[in-house]
Amino acid sequence: MQMKKTLAAILSTSMTLSMLSVSAFAAEDKPLMEDAANSWAASSIDRWVQQGIVQGDADGSFKPYRSLTRGELATVFVRMFGLTKKAENRYDDLDGSEWYADAVLRCTAAGILEGDGRNVNATAPVTRQEAMTMFARAMGMTPDASPDLSQFTDGSETAGWAAGYMAPLAKMGILQGVGADRIAPHDNIDRASTMALLDKAIEEYITAPGDVVLENGNGFTVINIAASAARANDAVGLSGTTAGVVISAGTQTDVAAADLTADTIRVDGSAAVSLHGNTTAEHVTVHSAASVAIGADAQADTVTLSGLQAALSVAGTVGTVTIASDRNMLTVTGTVSAVEVTRDASGTTVSAEAGGQIDAVSAAGTGMTVQGEGTVSSLVASEGASDITVNTSGTRIDNNSSEAVTAGTGTIEPGKAG
Q1: Which of 59, 109, 123, 125 is the most buried (most CB within 10 A)?
Q2: Whole-number pLDDT of residue 17
Q3: Element (H or E) spanning 409, and its range?
């Protein structure tokens, strides 16, 4: 694990991106990339070379001021965030044999890279707004619904799909203008600036089990522990304050947060994750078959389960739980204001155990069971919902679907309530 200095300086030069391959370390008594030794971003470049995230070109040079392409940035993110799952190829301009194809499809599966609807344009240089959007998505950030970039003279030139991500990054101090207060959203970003962005934004890059106290609410924490670095019965312990936590796809080490304050927590790995003590999180997203437990004194505004067979237990307080994948399980002994089961979900089990309280359930998926000795105040079966069974006592059911809802020993017919 590398402990990073406190985030202070703001990225204030133009940023352009170009492919950086993964590999071995250089000698520690000289700069790892000699042609970057005099770069303003030399320390940032060295950090990520030491971590094995980037190296240089075939000739061993880094070329810090060279532009980066979308495919090259995707490769950096695959290594940095340990991405493993690949999406089906939906891009007309990607045949799958390109050196960057695997990384592009992994970033697509993770929701980091989307393309323009038909093409991914993997060989095109990455612009500032594209790089910031990809980074924000990788960190699990929720875009600002009403972004304000008016502090920049060209803020209005930012694309709508990027502004919601760039505004909070600017507010955090990770993104700042270039030149005379310009955000330059359409300018390309170079290698040096990319390394500086990642260095400033990622406060902690954790690669081994152990306890870490986080001290920067404007910096992110990434946990990327390879199987070879994991130790039996060891875990990562987090406390303090951070902008967000990403638990990478390859991480199998358990993660325990005690008295942690985080805006976002993104779970891509299959680790067991526990939030206890006075831990608070605004948004928790689970993209894997992970087990997440929210302790009695912990709370989260929203939790989204979008990974197959993800499991969530709530002994504390959660505002909204969204279930958007198959065979997810929610167990509540604390309080959940709302549970929303989307059309993408099937085989969902919602258990309100003794002492548990769920105020409202919205069901749009298939094959859902609501059970337990706790309280589920109401359930609405939406159009398209099917095979819904409700076994909790005293639950009001409004059936707006076209199929009957099984309730105890009876049924609630379509268009009826009971």
Answers
A1: 125
A2: 34
A3: none
The answer to whether 266 touches 288, Cβ cutoff 8 Å, is no
Q: Which residue has the tokens 């919205």?
A: 362
DSSP secondary structure of 265-283: EEE-SS-EEEEETT-EEEE
CA-nearest of 390, 350, 351, 357 to 372 is 351
89-112 as b/e: b if 16+ CB within 10 A: eebeebeeeeebbbbbbbbbbbbb
Question: From residue 385, how far is each of 105, 185, 308, 407 by CA, in Å?
Answer: 31, 43, 19, 15
Does residue 380 contact residue 398 with C-beta atoms inside 8 Å? Answer: yes
Which amino acid type is present at position 134?
A: M
Asked whether the beta carbons of 71 and 123 are under 8 A apart, the reply is: yes
End-to-end alpha-carbon separation of the chain, Å?
56
Rounded mean pLDDT, 296-325: 97
Q: Is 0.90 surpassed by the pTM of this model?
A: no
Q: What angle do the packed helices 42-50 and 191-201 form, to 10 degrees?
A: 70
- pLDDT score, position 223: 96
Q: Specify the DSSP element, H or E, that contains 98.
A: none
Which residues are registered as beta bridge partners of 121?
Answer: none
Pull the structure tokens for residue 284: 């928790």
Closest CA to 153 of 132, 192, 120, 181: 181
3-state helix, strand, coil in the chain (%, to 5): 20, 35, 50
Residue 295: phi and psi, rounded to 5, are: -70, 175
pLDDT per residue over 82-101, tens digit each? 999 999 999 999 999 999 99
